[in-house]
Amino acid sequence: MDQQTLASPHLRSYIRPLAAGFLVLCTTSCATMFGDAGEEQRPVRVNSSLVVDIFAARGFLGGADYEQYKLSGGELWRECGHVPQPSTVKTGATGPTKTGLSPVERRIDSPTRPELSELLNAAEAVLTESATKRERLPTPGGISSLVDPGVVDLRISLDGKQRTFITSVDAMSDGGSPVAKSLRALFERVRGVGPVICKAPTFFGVRR
Questions:
Q1: CA distances from 143 to 15, 18, 139 (A)
Q2: Are 129 and 178 in a shared domain?
Q3: CATH code of the domain covering residue 72
């Protein structure tokens, strides 16, 4: 093809739309294949030794509710319900008693690998913050009335190391300290696995 043919206005009228279409297609497909270069992709990490055990209860105007979770072996057991006699849940140095619970819903869910990775990241953040800050968390309270701050018993086991955090629902929900904020983030990650249970997308300020 000679230079005169290439310079033909008639031929250029076909080349320009084709070139524009190719540019749009490449932009879309390349973004899909390679992702946004400015967005940092976090690696998916899974550790089968991770165990997270959570019990939380708090009173409100019409009674008291609780939620409890156990992540172990890549499976998440979940339960929620009411506490008909709030005085049966007593707090202590080793954690709250869990008698007198009235379960409403139970489930066992299998988190996806990305969810397991986020749970691991959140658990490691709690352990790192607690080791670095060494702050004293607010003490737990009762669950008998609206003014009681409630109780949270959160335990983490990872690579043979175990840590227990006992505080109030209000302190964790407020996230007023780095450790409390990391506890809330882990609780929210756990609550975010699977469908909503007990029709409660939030638990006294803790989302999912």
A1: 74, 69, 13
A2: yes
A3: 3.30.1560
Q: CA nearest 91: which of 156, 137, 52?
A: 137
Residue 45 domain flag: no
Q: Are 143 and 89 in contact (CB under 8 A)?
A: yes
C-alpha 118 chain-centroid distance: 7
Distance, in Å, from the CA atom of 177 to the CA atom of 61, rounded to the nearest integer, reads 27
Q: β-strands 63-72, 161-167: how paired?
A: unpaired
DSSP characters over 61-83:
TTEEEEEEEEEETTEEEEEEEE-
- Taking the C-alpha atoms of residue 196 and residue 199, their distance in angstroms, rounded to an integer, is 6
What confidence tens digit (pLDDT) does each residue in 114-153 have? 999 999 999 999 999 999 887 899 999 999 999 999 999 9
If phi > 0 it is left, if psi is from -120 to 50 it is alpha, else beta; for residue 35 that is left
On whether both 156 and 108 belong to a single domain, the answer is yes
Q: Which pLDDT tens digit goes with each residue over 159-181? A: 999 999 999 999 999 999 999 99
Phi and psi at residue 35, in whole multiples of 5°?
80, 175
For residue 24, the enclosing domain spans 3-34
58 bridge partner residues: 65
pTM of the model: 0.79
Asked, for residue 43, whether it belongs to a domain, the answer is no
